[in-house]
Amino acid sequence: MKCEHCTRKECSKKTKTDDQENASVDVPSPAHENGEKGEFHKLADAKIFLSDCLACDSCVSAEEGVQVSQQNAKDFFRVLNLNKKCDTSKHKVLAVSVCPQSLPYFAAKFSLSVTDASRRLCGFLKSLGVHYVFDTTIAADFSILESQKEFVRRFRQHNEEEPTLPMLTSACPGWVRYAERVLGHPVTPHLCTAKSPQQIMGSLVKDYFARRQNLSPDKIFHVIVAPCYDKKLEALQEDVLTASRGSRGTDCVLTSGEITQMMEQSDLSVRDAALDTLFGDVKEEEVRRHDGASSDGYLAHIFRHAAKELFNEDVGEVTYRALRNKDFQEVTLEKSGEVLLRFAAAYGFRNIQNVVLKLKKGKFPYHFVEVLACAGGCLNGRGQAQTEDGCVDKALLQKMKGIYTDIPVRLPETSAHVQELYQEWLDGTDSPRVQEALHTAYQGPGHPANSRDIKW
């Protein structure tokens, strides 16, 4: 049985109707064992189906399957319960980082403004026993800024003998995993080496924040709230700073839907609270996003930066032109009838397959492609805006898009905190620490060539 994204003749993935017992990981509901107020009466078992994973590479090994099974609410509650015990040596500082594409889901689901949804979510998590709740936007700032610099460098170094273009984004774990595990060379050399926001947030929390708090990284339990299941797989692959002494940057990933399930079943008394920052007692005043319709907007930010750096052209509003479908769009910079820059956004695996086919044939006209595994972008992640039968809740998703569009945009270059971190945490913008903390390398396919049969 193939999953809907599969390009193989055989696929090891399960569907929601095939072998339910083996296809899912059950998370027992926290019970009223001691009648303590604030526990959950009927928290439905969370099930993670392999068909929810968007990385189509036949795909999760047995070992990874066991590890993914630990990326759930049960592990989260285990740490919360440990913190209630008398043995303080086993206590952990619980930090939760929320992806900006998750907030519109909470806002739409509970009919709140995005700011009120953020405060409600933060208050709920702290009522459970979470110590800090962060926004991952600052990590995306770093990822975008490093991607901008890398694109300009690649553009200047590009030649026919050693092509460095097109540059393909590296923020989507479903796409990156697919590129590494299935496609390999010649695709992986085109992947941007900038780490994803989740990976960078892991380093910020387990390295920078840990040192500010005089904590060992292994004393922090770091949870990411994300819109898709592929973030769970990404957490298993993270290569964190050497300074983190082997501690994984992200210990657990919970989808927006899993958190909502907890909120709906909770009888806790919740007070709204402002999001924390990595900088001591400073609080996040307002929710901000980057310039993307449903994602962090790598294309728009890199396009403007490249136009200015390479051609001294100031670009205001970025104009997208849909080509094959609404999930494949292009943006061009033209001068005197000449195309100087040609960028594209390719969302969903059907568009990704077309990109890869043309790239392999050497007939790909783009300098840069923002690649996302989810059709419709990150807001449409499988971990949120789903109906009970697993389909997209189109009405809710449309509402989420409107909410996300209304969030004020913050340019990464304008963040004083990011510039402060470059100096204080990374010893400058071009230091070896930047390469170590903010960039990564990619592996080739992990399966023998004869175990794949990809038809484009």
TrEMBL record:
Q: Where is the Iron hydrogenase small subunit domain?
A: 390-446
* Region ranges (Disordered): 9-36
> Where is this gene product found?
Nucleus
- For bias type Basic and acidic residues, the affected ranges are 9-19
Annotated Gene Ontology cellular components are: lamin filament; nucleolus; nucleoplasm
Task: Note the Pfam families from the entry.
Answer: Fe_hyd_lg_C, Fe_hyd_SSU
Q: Which InterPro entries match?
A: Cytosolic_Fe-S_CAF (IPR050340), Fe_hydrogenase (IPR009016), Fe_hydrogenase_lsu_C (IPR004108), Fe_hydrogenase_ssu (IPR003149)
- Which one of the record's GO molecular function terms can you name? lamin binding
The family database entries (Gene3D superfamilies) matched by this protein are listed as: 3.40.50.1780, Fe-only Hydrogenase (Larger Subunit), Chain L, domain 3
Sorted UniProt keywords = Nucleus, Phosphoprotein
Task: State the family named in the UniProt similarity comment for this chain.
Answer: Belongs to the NARF family.
PANTHER family with a match to the protein in the record: NITRATE, FORMATE, IRON DEHYDROGENASE (PTHR11615)
Relate the assembly described in the record. Interacts with LMNA and binds to the farnesylated C-terminal domain.
Q: What is this protein called?
A: Nuclear prelamin A recognition factor
